Amino acid sequence: MQQQFIPQVSKVQNVADVEVSGLGRLQTNAQDVMAKAMELTDAWGQAMFIMDRPLVESLFAAIGFSRAVCAGVFDAVRSLAYVQHRQQDAAPQTEVTWHAMDATCMTLRGIEGLKSAMTGITDTNVEKFLEGNIDLFETLMKAMPDYTRNLMFSPGIAADVLACFGARISPETLYDLAWRYGRQVTKDLDGRLGISTQFIRSLSLTIAARI
Fold first, then answer.
1. Helix (H) or strand (E) holding 157
2. Interval 167-183 mean pLDDT
3. Which of 50, 66, 118, 136 has the fewest CB atoms in 10 Å of its CB?
4. Per DSSP, what are the bridge partners of residue 94?
5. Angle at alpha carbon of residue 104, lines to 99 and 23, rounded to 5°
6. pTM of the full structure
7. Residues 79-90: pLDDT tens digits?
8. Residues near 41 by Cβ (< 8 Å), separated by ≥ 6?
9. Which runs of consecutive H residues, i.e. helices, occur in 64-154?
10. In whole angstroms, how far apart are CA 100 and each of 73, 108, 178?
11. Per-domain residue ranges for the chain?
12. How does pLDDT run across 79-134, given as a tens digit for each residue?
């Protein structure tokens, strides 16, 4: 039954089996990873969320990558130079953003064709997939920075984010899952709905790591 979630590509690895040499896949597939990061920046409303080295390393450790891979992933992603950050009284430097994390995880595993990598995940099976990988999901929920609990985004945005990888999950389903598994949602006076960044990032990384 789990087979339905596995992309039809060759040489897909479990995260624990990815070796340091696998970091080279990011350069080999740099154009695809960068293009997906740009697409996701737009999907999030052209927001950019800069990540520092400790956060990137801790997240990839939570996903289950080896210590050696975790130690090298920040520099490997930053070397793609898809975002330049300028600050006064400091030299410009490239940064790592959240938008490259799912693509990085899947590329390290050997998944190609990022735009269709999550096609097998839909309204009809996403909860079953989540239940089957609840261990990783809960680990990622705890690993997310505290501030992600308080950043609420429209479930429509979350659906668009997952759709960038081919997943077909409706905003309604995501809102329901965010309440039952993310344990919080919001609704304002005009009826705008919100789900936490903590939830949607934990869900997307769980899919990226386990499809």
1. helix 155-163
2. 98
3. 50
4. 84
5. 145
6. 0.92
7. 999 999 889 998
8. 47, 48, 97, 99
9. 67-78, 101-108, 126-132, 134-143
10. 11, 12, 22
11. 2-210
12. 999 999 889 998 889 999 999 999 999 999 999 999 999 999 999 999 999 999 99
